[in-house]
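Kindly review this protein for my students:
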Amino acid sequence: MTDTPSNIKTELMAGTTTFLTMSYILFVNPAILSAAGVPFAAAATATALGAGILCLLMGFITHRPLAMASGMGLNAVIAFSVIGFQQSHVPWQVGMSVIFLEGLIILLLVLVGLREAVMNAIPPNLKRAIGVGIGLFITVIGLNEGGIIRPAPITLVALGDFSQRYVWVTLVGLLAILAFMSLRVKGAILWGLITATLAALLWGVASWPAAFVSWPDFGSWGAPFHRVGNRWALWSVFTPLLLTTVFSVMLTDFFDTLGTVMAVGEQAGFIGPDGKVPGARRILLVDSFGALFGGLIGSSSITTYIESAAGVAEGGRTGLSAIATGVLFLLASFLAPLIQVIGGGYRLPNASQYQLFVSSGFQAPPDVLSPAGAGDYFVYPITAAALIVVGALMMRTIRDIEWDQFDESFPAFLTIVGIPMTYSISHGIGFGFISYTLMKTLARKKVHPFMYVVAACFVAAFLLPHVS
């Protein structure tokens, strides 16, 4: 895909679209973190301002349309596995120290050139497969968030309940986007989001907020240096168990970003003919700082978002798109109730049969997300259609995979199916790396040394949590 001409209006529209598509994080992330004891208001401030600051840095430093915010998945790992509900495992400040330390390590790896070297060592077919797998991943997320599909106990997934109004909000948004794209209307995805919002308001799925302004709370900032007992929280990380967690989180953060950058880069046209990303070190530098900064302010790891592809689909090609997204996140730190109308989730009362909780599949903590009691789950019908369409747009590189060479196509296939089926970009990439290295080695074909190292790291990451 070649670069497409852009202009200021297009970039601003693209940045707005990216923001609307990923704005759910403003409400999901504080809800997840507060379940582990992080003050809700402080987590909300950290989420909005952290995303805004890192988007601005990405736009000004890299000149690429890559937006950043607290990463889904990692926030759940920190909240539910490391910290635990209501601080049952370790204090939340220690959990944020895990993020802070892994971010520092990744930042050092970028400065010595290792992270970029690993990116350049990935075979072209695996790079293409990563983009396709992520496309399927965000499509599944969109279908799930919009209620078009739902989890099922035997078949894993089933058709959603079309008697629910929120499902029709998703369908209206999807049909609107498809209609605008067919008519070649500029900003088709953005106009589709607006159409879905109007439908949600008309049908009572969404409602105008009682207040429009909320004030920032900086209580979680400097979390690793909060006093826990008689020492800084950061010092509590240096135990065998938590250091193993630092390694696992680092590996996830490391490859989630690589996959996202390559997938969005393919769509935006800034992947070179050699499969490399021009200016990759700057991108990785900002992203690595995002992990460190996220742990520092108490928002969990701030990482590059695959939803950036929504803005790219609207014509975003430069850093101005990311800057626009960043400005909106900064404003959102004051206007979160209003933004929630579009990006926020909507409760499904007594809908335990859906087992839906944002895009991670976790049950909603009843004391945080479900004041009415257990069995309440959240969906995101307004932005779901945008994710479905963007996922389809990201499938184009599947045609370039060398399907006639089995030792190339099978690792690519495992990557493509592994990402959505494990609900993890890094796990899917791990499947591809391990199988590629194994098959090429058995066939006595050349393998880049970094592939052996990374494949071994993935094997360790998969096995270590299960070693007693």
